[in-house]
Records
---
Amino acid sequence: MKKALPHTLALITIVIWSSTFVVTKYLLEYFSPTAILIYRFFISIILLFIIYPKFHKPQKLTHELYFLGAGLSGITGYFLLQNIALSYTSATNVGIISGIVPIVTLLSSFIAFKKPKISWNFVLGFFIAISGIILITLNGAFELKLNPLGDILAILAMVSWGIYGVFLKLLTDLGYQGTTMTRHIMEYGFIFLIPAFFITKSSFNFNAFTDYKVVLSLLFLALFASTLAFLLWNYSCQRISTVTTNIYLYLSPLISTLFSFIFLKEKITLFIIIGMILSIIGLLVSSNFTINFIKKLFNFNKNNIDEEKGSD
């Protein structure tokens, strides 16, 4: 049960993050990508402070550097690079490239901590899942147009998320956790978003707030996609490791497609269905939780057979 909870919370987080595609697509009609991030994380920081109204007390300079690194990589770097990449390359390319996050996270963790070891089931699951992601994103139209700048930025965004996992583990090992840690990471991320806002020549467009749909959409991104999701994600990373938690990102294209089908009335083809199945299989194969469950189930059945033989 203790292991099942963080797995469940990681899955809930992916569902929330995957739904942001529809919401962000709507908000882009009113704001620039950087402006959306500014509003989103500013509101989230306030909400986290309301939940836990205590200021972070710096202990050591190295600790603060870890927080700075986490904010720069997991908030500013990841979201900003991904949004900029979308302006240079297609969503299809970014969707496929996002499938490398689990393997990038594993390599980042191995380089930084010399663990975990790269297992056969993780690699096999990666190739199965990435095949599913390719089928979902291309959807039968096998015309992958490469754009060097946009694709490189998308790859850098995924690398930035992998680096975030390293800083998150460093902070967890130092005893930081929960609301305070998540809020302080966002604070550093928000600080670095401010110069990006002016560099990209964005505007706040306050007139858009007269539309209640805009307000509700921003509150959804701040309350659920940022505040709640990051709390759940960080908790899962602390309990079952960053590498294991990131495996659930294999399901992101699948869930995004389902939301697009429900809210944007986009069609689900045979290619998408096959891709969904492969993504789920890849997740199950990659997860040590699944492998351990199968082993326990096998041992349980084996013990039952031995007991029946013994009773005979």
Note: DSSP finds 13 helices and no strands in the chain.
---
Amino acid sequence: MSSFNRVILMGNLTRDPELRYIPSGMAVSEIGIAVNDKRKNAKGEWIEETTFVDVTLWGRTAEVANEYLSKGSPIFIEGRLKLDSWETDGQKRSKLRVVGERMQMIGGRGGGGGQGQRGGGGRPAQNYDDSESGPSSGGGFSDGDFEQPAPRAAPAGGPPADDIPF
């Protein structure tokens, strides 16, 4: 039987990112996200529920999150669920978390929450992708992913592309 493990979340950071490096030199950042949901209860009243989710980011995505995001920053995360299990003092413990593979900062500089020393929301709706994220891969993105699009050429015999009203 096949399976599918994909998570898409949009919310706000509950704390500043915690960046560290593993012995191989790969960056890893732990962030927390609060995701709000509004729904009607059995009485027809609107109630708001908040879900707190721990997310792990790897590679360049982790470094970008640490540089541009702070508590309160709006963020969009796409990734997969992972169950961590360990034993402490003879008790088995487990925790479900998200391994973030793509991150998009929502809003522009200084906008949308998170006005900490890192500059708030960062770049407008910028997408960061670690398609092979994790401790065993290089992951990340190339500088070409963030180039501005080239200006459109003017149609033959028409006005320059910058003068087109739409």
Note: Residues 111-124, 132-155 have pLDDT under 50 and may be disordered.
---
Amino acid sequence: MRILVTGGAGFIGSHVVDAYLGAGHEVAVVDNLSTGHRDNLNPAAKFFEADIRSDRMSNIFSEFRPDVVNHHAAQKSVPYSVENPRFDADVNLMGLLNLLDLCQQHGVQQFILASSGGALADPGLIPSPESGSPLFVSPYSVAKYASEKYLEFYQHTYGIQTLCFRYANVYGPRQTPDGEAGVVAIFTQNILRGLPCKIYALPGMPRGATRDYVYVKDLVVAHEMAVTRRVSGVYNLGTGIETDTRTLVDELFAISGRVVPVTVQGARAGDLARSCLDSSKIARDLGWSFTTSVTDGLTRTYEWAHSLHEES
């Protein structure tokens, strides 16, 4: 099967590429390298350096002729979406529509969207099922929800099989602390460099917000399943376990054998107090569930980051 992965030079996208190649698929990557890294590119995949909003995408579809598009390219910063909602919508909505139009024109069979469980979780229902009511506290969450609805339209109107995976907080090797990164990558790098770790406390939650942390290698298993089982709809991918930010820091202290100062600041615009996903639907329909505990996943992630730190 020919699979086009947008954002395939990024943290999660590159792991998805590796999994598809390992399963014997022919894979192409589209990435403008604004946040992705060439070092993440698998040499067995064909690479196109391009922006998903560009006219060049038409030529890429014509040349590669994908059966499946796996869409990870995105503006992923929640705080930046609050500062610049127009840019967020341009990338996350207009970029998506460009891809969906090309899928319709080129007869693509399946479209898989990397959506956000954290942005679309129901804060009044923990863990949150897919059927909950999101609290739209950022343009990013609005764009992700609209993206899911656009997929419904294209499936109903053009027959493209569409699937949305709502991710919990994904962490693991290749996640960098630069730009809008996951807190695991930021804390790991700070510990290695002897820098303070910052916690954003919320009213009544001095240990910081709670999140559902899912290891990236568990996540990609669902993507492998998706292209063979061909399900449609919206699915959460998480552990159903809440971990507050201070607990995360303490776990990394224990794993690394190092301690750095911890500072506490107030919450940022767009931050949710709690986020945790109910993934029973995908367990029922595909048999997927996480297998890596937070402690094991953090250990593997720290060992990877430590090895890079020692080399530099």
Note: The two ends are 39 Å apart (CA to CA).
---
Amino acid sequence: MRSLIVILSAFALFLGSCGYHLGSPRPDEMQGVKRLYIKIPGNETQYPGLQADLANHLTDALIQDTTYEVGAKGFSDAVLETTILRVNYDRTRASVRDGIRPEELDMRVKVKWVVLREGEPVMSGESVEDTRFFLSDSRLTTARDNAFPDALSRVSRKIIYNISSSF
């Protein structure tokens, strides 16, 4: 019985050491950053209120990613500044009865982002994500408002991935 425990322990130790680590998963520019402050985004579109939604989605994406902690203003190693540049729509599918009336639209959100460390930019980029939504007997504004959370969530995850991953 004792030899079985020794063999199983040795086997578990062997399997536990099979992992590999080639380098830090963080980009070189972000080495030493543990806490990231997310500044309220700017908004260059005609849609009011998107700034708070984007900030919430960025915070959620940062928490789910676990590479960095969410930091408070003045107590963070870096600051993430974002600006919503554009929201575009493309008709994906038209109504069978009325070729002008859209039934399905594609919403594309473009966000510019920059990570500042001690006031100096260390990483920057632009992220674009899209989502599709349907207009089945609803108003365009209602359908659009219902599609914004998905589009902002997608672009937030992409931004956080770009900041967190060295790939």
Note: The domain at 33-164 is CATH 3.30.160.150 (Double Stranded RNA Binding Domain).
